[in-house]
Amino acid sequence: MSRTVCVVNEFITEAHKVKINAIAEKAGFTVRYYLTKEDATGHIEDCEVLFGHWRSLLHEASGLKWFCCAYAGVDPYVPPFQFPENCMLTNSSGAYGVTIAEHILMVMLMLQRRMPEYTDIVRRRDWVNDLTIRSIQGSRITVLGTGDIGTTFTRRVRALEPASVAGVNRSGKVREGVYDTVHRLDELDSVLPETDILLMALPSTPETIGIMSKERIGLLPKDSILVNVGRGTAVDQAALMEALNSGRLAGAAIDVMVPEPLPTDHPLWDTKNLLITPHIAGNMTLGYTCDKTVDMFCEDLENYIAGRPLKHLVDLKRGY
Amino acid sequence: MSRTVCVVNEFITEAHKVKINAIAEKAGFTVRYYLTKEDATGHIEDCEVLFGHWRSLLHEASGLKWFCCAYAGVDPYVPPFQFPENCMLTNSSGAYGVTIAEHILMVMLMLQRRMPEYTDIVRRRDWVNDLTIRSIQGSRITVLGTGDIGTTFTRRVRALEPASVAGVNRSGKVREGVYDTVHRLDELDSVLPETDILLMALPSTPETIGIMSKERIGLLPKDSILVNVGRGTAVDQAALMEALNSGRLAGAAIDVMVPEPLPTDHPLWDTKNLLITPHIAGNMTLGYTCDKTVDMFCEDLENYIAGRPLKHLVDLKRGY
């Protein structure tokens, strides 16, 4: 019986199939493609390798050896979810940096230049043009989470001449020297008061849940801004709303929140100077992002076939 | 009688005054400050050097030798306006690059990532997140006008990894090697079909009025975008509206238009995928920009006092 790879992704193109097939067929694998979870359900029992992002499929393949998640965040796969034993998990962290960095730059500039207010002005066909704006030039930026997203953003924002970019992560170390300084998480309280623009790009792990507590939001200078593109769990939302509504923070942009979708009666919608986007930063509608996830899967498919360690392996205990 | 410098600017701070006074007083000049045109009217007859941006004041000072315009665009000073004879004109081109480049990046990202549509989605508290987006990464950018604004933007956008950045100007030459290629204006028709993102950052001169004609807008690829931060006169607005409403262009962002302010019944307001801002890109509410205009004035005040040529002199015949 032929060994089977199943690909369950709505964005797969013919070019992607050619690429995946070439690698798989060389090793005698059969590849089957499904667009959606519904298409795949009931058809993947024999699947050894699965590339997709629907976790309910994982228990349909009794002999699954490797699941490659097309997303970067793997928080849905940690307990209480029971990830199949003896199955490897890889993710696609590395594919989303470019598109999310562009989203971050956009919303930071929108907040600094008061675009939400100008949108209202233009909507009523008014000609007000003297709102006091701020710049990225000369601002002190703190990047909380120095993975692919934080680092890809930092490489871009340097060209806008911020005063400094500080990275904050678990170890206080980074592979690439793009940050002016790098701090350990336990030094965060001393970094926040020196921050004009805070970017949060953290995975959801026990360590990051609630990390921007009411106390820490209170450490940010008046007139600073906060951008969160990681996971909504990282922010005390009630404290954020209060800081924004009272004018202590100049603004915030959140692409992630709790819960998602946000109910229509949730108070976040009415929060002052809060730019909400419906989890679009890492949108799979961008061809570049889809190509990258396929490239990364193919890279590890070659490793898998050759019996080499997988490059994008997730440590389920660590959560990323 | 003491020679007199008059400064008529609403943004002058105490620190600016200290800086200007130090240079002027060393040479025996008296400096008088007015916040507005109304404050200054009737009080500047003895003025030899004027720093401001209200042209109606120019004929109040019969012995005016130098007018330093705090803005970059000097189109209001060319005929039919009668600029005083034997008076030099300098401008503040060089002070606006940073703030306008940030505006340009913001609106380009907003158009590429379909933020005007997402703003409507969020306004109705909906949770749609699958609009097809585009990226700056991999896009072919054309910069029409390679002055301070075009060049400051190009230095920044390179970090976002566009496929290419082509500059277009009168001479086909630039001082700084930030562009992949530089073309003469008469080659524009061959550059436009190879353009995904067109930035227009031109002064208003006889050569630039109507430069983006209906024919040239038609040369842009379907799904390209156009951003104009120079002068509204450079674009055939009727042709732009038609291209946008018919879906031939993916979007446009204009910070300048004809006329300004835009009347509430103007069809531009109702144009599809058009992001209008009320001439805010070079906003004087940003301290950095104000500081730069004062620095540039001070630099030339030193030159003026020493009898050296002024660095930021405008050629009124050329128009910039």
Reading off the top of the CATH hierarchy, the class of the largest domain in chain A is best stated as: Alpha Beta
Q: Number of DSSP strands of chain A?
A: 12
Helix content of chain A: 25-40%
Largest interface: A-B, 51 and 51 residues
Number of distinct helices of chain A: 9
Mean of all residue-level pLDDT scores of chain A: 96
Number of domains of chain A: 2
Just name the CATH architecture of the largest domain in chain A.
3-Layer(aba) Sandwich
Instruction: Name the helix and strand elements of chain A from N-terminus to C-terminus, one letter apiece.
Output: EHEHEEEHHEHEEHEHEHEEH
Oligomer: homodimer
What about the largest sheet of chain A?
7 strands, parallel
Rg from Cα of chain A: 21 Å
Which structural class should the secondary elements of chain A be placed in? alpha/beta
User: Under CATH, the topology of the largest domain in chain A is which?
Assistant: Rossmann fold
Measured between the Cα atoms of the first and last residue of chain A, the distance is 34 Å
CATH superfamily of the largest domain in chain A: NAD(P)-binding Rossmann-like Domain
Low-confidence stretches of chain A: none
Dominant shape of chain A: elongated
The proportion of residues in beta strands of chain A is 15-25%
- Widest sheet, order of strands of chain A: 8-7-6-9-10-11-12
